[in-house]
Amino acid sequence: MPSPHDFPSSFSSISALSALGWDATFAALFAEHAAAGLVPARIARVDRGLCDTLTAVGPVRADSSPLTGADREHTVCTGDWAALRPGAQPQVSALLPRRTAITRASSDRTSHQQVLAANVDTVVVAVSLAAPLNAGRIERLLALAFDSGARPIIVLTKADLAEHPGAGEAVAASLAPGVQVLTTSAATGAGLDLLSAAVSGTAVLLGPSGAGKSSLANALLGRDHMSINQVRAADGKGRHTTAHRELLALPGGGVLIDTPGLRGIGVQDVADGVGQVFAEIETYARDCTFRDCGHRSEPGCAVQRAIAAGELSLDRLDRYRKLLRESEWAATRGDARQASKRRKADKAMTRELRATYRFRGRQR
């Protein structure tokens, strides 16, 4: 573990961070922190009140409790760039603004969002070919990826266990127009070289348990870093191999964030991402007679014409509607929560002012 004296004193000596995603933009954002004697670090793993970080001089265990609060959207997250205060116990003093963030609606059905990974460039959506493809799950993950601003790719795993891997690739491509689809097998090594070439910058692995994320991680890392569990034969579902989000340096530069399997993939305020996943539906909708067409039985509906012509499936339209409804509903709850927070803050300020006036009145 580096001592506080090992930290560099100027930006000219932190070029080692470039392999972790550091660039001129982050350096400019960090300038005021550098003037205060802080050093840049990338969050690699978050525990309760503590976190592992990667710095120019190596890994540092730091206290993150000052930034661990009730607001889940702005707490310390794997992939964040942080301002670290050196000392006997290094401390995370601030976070730099996130360039991108993979977020989902909280699994507890509240109006909060959960940040899964920050400052991501590439989202690897892992899908197992050993089980029937779940179209809705793939579309949800793609919506999260697109909405974050990162570039998604679909990686089909376990091709050696599929009878017709080409058929799965065709289905995946139909669910994600314009998104790169790769077919791989960790057992045979097929497609892994293409995957390594496709991953750039900071990549995050997303998918359910049993999708083969840990095998992909090991292939990209060039070593058996992640343990691997077998899926259940009864339903094809896997047990959680990865129990936490962890950022790992890739041998050729860049970093990889591995995540636990996602059981629930709630969406919140991701209309832009949904629009990119279902780009063909929104293209058809531009030709509808009415701007507010619901694509049901309205006259002149171009979307319904596409369904009648066999160019679009009704199931895909239904999934599009469902994702938009869920996203808008969750966003409305989020807006209501923010309004409630503002009302509580206003009431607290009013109480403080009244108490001040009463105190002043007693002093006269």
| CATH structural class of the domain at 101-258 | Alpha Beta
Shape: globular
* Number of helices in the DSSP assignment: 9
Class of secondary structure makeup: alpha/beta
With strands numbered from the N-terminus, the spatial order across the biggest sheet is 10-9-8-11-13-12
Instruction: List how many beta strands DSSP finds.
Output: 13
For the largest beta-sheet, the strand count, sense and barrel status come to: 6 strands, mixed
A few lines on this structure:
With 364 residues, the protein is α/β, with parallel strands linked by helices. Helix content is 34%, strand content 20%.
What do these coordinates show?
By secondary structure, the protein is of the alpha/beta class. Among the domains are: 4-95, OB fold (Dihydrolipoamide Acetyltransferase, E2P) (Beta Barrel), CATH 2.40.50.140; 101-258, Rossmann fold (3-Layer(aba) Sandwich). The protein is built from 9 helices and 13 strands. The protein has helices at 24-35, 135-148, 165-175, 192-198, 213-221, 271-277, 279-285, 302-308, 314-363, and strands at residues 39-46, 50-55, 58-63, 81-85, 91-95, 101-105, 113-118, 122-128, 151-157, 180-183, 202-206, 246-249, 255-258. It starts with 23 loop residues before the first helix and ends with a helix. Residues 9-13, 231-236 and 335-342 have low confidence and may be disordered. Its cofactor is Zn(2+). Zn(2+) binds at residues 288, 293, 295, 301. Residues 333-352 are annotated as: Disordered. Monomer. Associates with 30S ribosomal subunit, binds 16S rRNA.
